[in-house]
Design brief:
The complex is a heterodimer of chains A (about 290) and B (about 325). Chain A has about 290 residues and is mostly helical. Chain A contains 14 helices and no strands. In chain A, α4 packs parallel to α7. Chain A starts with a helix and ends with a helix. In chain B, strands 1-2 form a two-stranded antiparallel sheet. Classes of the chains: A mainly alpha (about 290), B mainly alpha (about 325).
Amino acid sequence: MKPEEATIKIKKSKNSLSYGSLIKVFYAAVTVFAVIYIFPVIWIFITSIRPNSDIHKFPPSIIPQALTIQNYVYVFTGMKGFLRYFLNSVVVTSATVVFVLISSALSGYAFGMRKFKGNQILFMLVLSVLTIPYIMYLIPIYIMEYKMGLTDTYLGLILPYVALNLPWGLLIMRGAFSTIPLDIRDAAIVDGCSEFRMVFQVLIPIVKPAFVTTTIITFVFAWQEFMFASTINKRNEWQTLPVGIVWLRDELQTMAMGRVGAAIILSIIPVIILFLVFRKFFIEGLSEGMLKG
Amino acid sequence: MSTVNHEELTELKRLKRQRKLREDINLFLFLLPAMVFVLIFIAFPVVYSGYLSLTKYKFGIDPVPKFIFFRGYIERFHDDFFLTSLKNQAIFAVLYFSITFLASLILAILINELTHGVQVFQVIFYLPMIIPMSLVGITFAWLLSPINGFANIIIRNVTHNPRFMFDWYQEPQTALVGLIIARSWKMVGFTLIIFIAGLKGINKSLREAAKVDGSTFWQEVKWIIIPNLKPYMLISSIWILINSLKVFDLVKVVTEGGPGIRTYTLYYYAWKLAFERMDFGQASQVSYITAAIILILAAVLNLIFRPETAEKG
């Protein structure tokens, strides 16, 4: 008995020893990778606080010889478009999120808690949206919006964004609603509650986490979307940030990388703050959303 | 007595029917907003671009689409631009898939073993997910620009060759790879989330038992971690795959398809056909072929990862 125990102990200690040094290697590897990974963001930040003369001097240097906030001042005072792009992004993104939440909650309830003919088939059809390349939707949507005069408007972007994100919302909402015991619903209806009131006052508070998840997924999409934004809205004043900053770059050419860098940093800082504050929700939301897909 | 009962019954039936009708109307109303969006902006476009793909139609030039059956598709397979885009897309997909899949899998396994600083690492690796692809493109184009680009400055210093000047995104050998790296940089966070979720789901006692039996870390990876991650591998593969075909913004912002047509991708070519040449017929053919490719590849992936998921039940 005793020798056996002893060997187990030896094995264990040997293992934990090699584990200990292995973990150190892991720390080193992950740290190196993380530094390389974050570097592009840091580099664009460093560029944004250097004066143009320093960025473009010859021979070029990595370590800044001079620092300035002029680039940031310029973004707010000299760059006409930036604040407008920002506003456009906020309007389009928040409207998309609101529409997606409302319509996906209503139909998520129907798919999750109401049994009806064709439930499964209809749901699968809606989900197939996710695998189809978006460019396929773009051409007909462009023709439609062109004929209806919706190009160069907020609505022209919001409507397709809602449609493209609905399947996500639906997937998440259906999942959340289907976990609610049907008794709750029946009890409310027996109490004489109308179905709509029941959904809004009783059920929706229960599926709050699904609202957070849907909001995050929709936000991440709408805030970054480029193809629809650059195709449907051609006029400068209707551009969202991802398209607008590219315009700024093309206008300023590469000789003003400090200013473009400042615009990039300013455009991502609010999102980074949101991301840091709601980190837990972001990660849980995205992982839930993607795993369900 | 019996007549009253009968009357009550019919009354009850009537009420029940009424309630059923009201419930049906409600159901319709609940589904209405989502279905309107899906019908107008999803279903109709799919059908309509399917129709357009069977026509010859230059928007603004041809008054109406002219029906040509499948001739357009046949033409596409003799179209050098299309074939080059297809080839680039294949290279892109394979490299992008390998880099993103392996990098995020290895990172996830490593991070899963760590106890301190996990939050910081996660924030760093997840950060690119919220930076728009077009801005990632500008950033990488700047990092790899010929004169002031960080990469070239480093190479100049290391090789002591002050004249070294390489335009990574305009040279045929490196342009596509440069795009792939930028795209992977953004994507790794997404798949990392999936893998970390999968690793958290692995029963700890399994690994402890293995440790007691004297298994090494690599044995645990091989016999416990990888088999248990199979379902998550399927999910992340499908994600990477779908994303590997959605390459438009990066190409548009960084290379505009150049040098020559070395970085044309299927999305980019379809977009270019549609909104620069306004040839909606040809563009729809390209996008339908792209959709077919995605469906076929997704089915293949499903086959590769199926057995294990089925075993898990």
